[in-house]
Amino acid sequence: MAFTLPELPYAPNALEPHITANTIGFHHGKHHQTYVTNLNNLIKDTPLENKSLEDIIKETASDASKAGVFNNAAQVWNHTFYWHSMSPNGGGEPTGDIKAKIDEDFGSYEEFKKAFKEAGATQFGSGWAWLILEGGKLKITKTPNADTPLAHGQKAILTADVWEHAYYLDYQNRRPDYLETFLSYLVNWDFANKNLKA
Questions:
Q1: What Rg value do the Cα atoms of the chain yield, rounded?
Q2: Do 196 and 157 form a contact (C-beta atoms < 8 A)?
Q3: What separation in angstroms does the CA of 67 have from each of 5, 64, 110, 150?
Q4: CA distance linking residue 40 with residue 3, whole number of Å
Q5: Is 151's pLDDT higher than 90?
Q6: Residue 95: partners with Cβ closer than 8 Å, 6 or more residues away
Q7: Would you tell me how many other CB atoms lie within 10 Å of the CB of residue 88?
Q8: How far apart are CA 180 and CA 188, in angstroms?
Q9: What pLDDT, in 10s, does the model give residues 36-64?
Q10: Can you give the residue ranges of every domain in the chain?
């Protein structure tokens, strides 16, 4: 069963003015679609063809001979997770269980925000900034390229894509500004609460 490009959870222009429909069009319609297409081509007529995306990622993560499969599968998963990490009504301080957990594990929302922005800004080259749950504690991590918490037994709560194609049309080289905007106006705390409970 071939994978298909997941639909966005909002209209392509719903995140404007913070992320434009132009960026979403290229990012979702071209980049994300390419990962889906590549993955389908790579797993066709192989034992991975009928596995779930999560199983493909876990099975290929430490196999150098399957790096192409892993990279495309992980990027399909990471991007789908990223779209849901944002909301047109997002941003600002967390609410609900995630607020209490952030306060408990980071000391305050401000400390979390500082650490998350630093992780995203200091990820050299392409990659991702993540809020994860590991060993019952919230942590911030960053991964290069297609790498994903899923490959390391960690539970993803939120992510910000820091590949240039995620922000360059709107922010050029100003990655810290994009991350500030992500947290101030876009981050989907409802999604984070859902992931924390799951």
A1: 16
A2: yes
A3: 21, 5, 37, 15
A4: 6
A5: yes
A6: 189, 193
A7: 16
A8: 14
A9: 999 999 999 999 999 999 999 999 999 99
A10: 21-198
From the list 111, 128, 2, the residue with the least C-alpha distance to 53 is: 2
Q: How far is 51 from 156, CA to CA, in rounded Å?
A: 21
| DSSP letters spanning 171-194 | HTT-HHHHHHHIIIIIB-HHHHHH
Tokens 């409802």: give the residue.
190
CA nearest 162: which of 141, 184, 178?
A: 178
Rounded CA-CA distance 133/147 in Å is 16
Q: Are the CB atoms for 85 and 187 separated by under 8 Å?
A: yes
- Class for domain 21-198, per CATH? alpha beta
The reported pTM is: 0.97
Q: Roughly what angle, to the nearest 10 degrees, separates helices 109-122 and 97-106?
A: 80
